[in-house]
Amino acid sequence: MAEAYIVDAIRTPVGRRNGGLSQVHPADLGAHVLKALVERSGIDSAEVDDVIFGCVDQIGAQAGCIARTAWLSAGLSEDVTGVTIDRQCGSSQQAVHFAAQAVLAGVDDLVVAGGVENMSMVPIGSGGIGGMQLGYGDPMGGEGWRARYGDQEISQFRGAELIAQKWDVSREDMERFALESHRRAARAREEGRFDREIVPLGDVTRDEGVRPDTSLEKMASLPTLVEGGRLTAAVSSQISDAATAMLIASEDAVKRHGLTPRARVHTMVMAGADPVFMLTGPIPATEKALRRSGLGLDDIDLFEVNEAFASVVLAWSRETGAPLEKTNVNGGAIALGHPLGATGTRLMITLLHELERTGGRYGFQTMCEGGGMANGTIIERL
User: Fold this and answer.
1) Closest CA to 163 of 340, 316, 306
2) DSSP class of residue 326?
3) Does residue 160 have a pLDDT over 90?
């Protein structure tokens, strides 16, 4: 039976908005991890079959197939192709899926999967907003869309509010969850849990978004995002800058290049959900992944669920029964940040390293995505 192995997995620190990585060109951000991945694994860059990168706002500095420009900016082989994909927040998780699928199909042997997003330089929504300003139209302005969903607001912010209402997730529930995210991330950072996965860039050596000194009192003082709502900035993911890269290999490539696999991609699923609620996809993705894998919740040692908003993870846990004590044990996007195109692999990289640190076997990752979608991935530590 064919296998898709994870050989190595690294990332930059996650820079906060307008922080230490904000002026680094996105191609150079990507190049930094790509060069480090090749050097650390010891492979000849010309042996790589493809580079698959996630990037959500592919405009300006992030346009022009950044997977290819980042690879070339790293000084690596011109013979290697690149492709950039957009599955919204799950883009780089999908990059891993595509890489693993190519390996499992016997088409490729060595594929780099990752992602990049400099949200300080290319603000969130630039593609849609920029196109509308230039007269290229509204992404949700087609006749078919309006006939089905009308002219109602479609946004992640509204979706997160609707989720909080439907699952009766209070502001206080979310603030307690957010505080725990910062506490877990601060502990992980101070204990050096991220050190092996991070490749420092310049003066930025660690994740910048963690706030060890935050408190429930500080969170309670913030205004809600909308009048009468429950969400505040404190219970939302942070705007961030980062790049990630993972090396996915076939069994033949592992033997031929003398590589040591650290995990295998066990199960991959995608799931669609209501695009108005938008962020509930992790619920069916979890159910689908467990069903397809033959595993139960108790078999999963660690969960990584993207903290786009606290309401998303809390509703997911209530609906699936997955334990929060085993979820995002080193903090999540509320504390560490959410560099859109890079977050999918950032979660998987942290998941892999934590499985290795704790001796766990199975890790499950899922994340909500624009359009009402989600990816689900189970990896098995070797």
Assistant:
1) 316
2) G
3) yes
Residues paired with 375 in a beta bridge: 270, 367
Structural class in CATH, domain 5-124+239-257: alpha beta
Q: Kindly provide the b/e burial profile for residues 308-343, where b requires at least 16 CB atoms within 10 angstroms of the residue's own CB.
A: bbbbbbbbbbeebebebeebbbbbbbbbbbbbbbbb
Among this protein's residues, is 65 annotated catalytic? no
- Summarize pLDDT for 41-62 with one digit per residue, the tens: 999 999 999 999 999 999 999 9
Q: Which of 89, 97, 182, 353 is catalytic?
A: 89
Alpha helices in the chain (DSSP H): 26-41, 66-73, 91-104, 126-133, 143-149, 156-166, 171-190, 216-220, 251-257, 282-293, 310-320, 333-336, 340-358
Measured between alpha carbons, how far apart are the two ends of the chain, in Å?
16
Enter the tokens of residue 235. Answer: 């219970």
Domain boundaries, the chain: 5-124+239-257
Active-site residue (options: 32, 55, 97, 368): 368
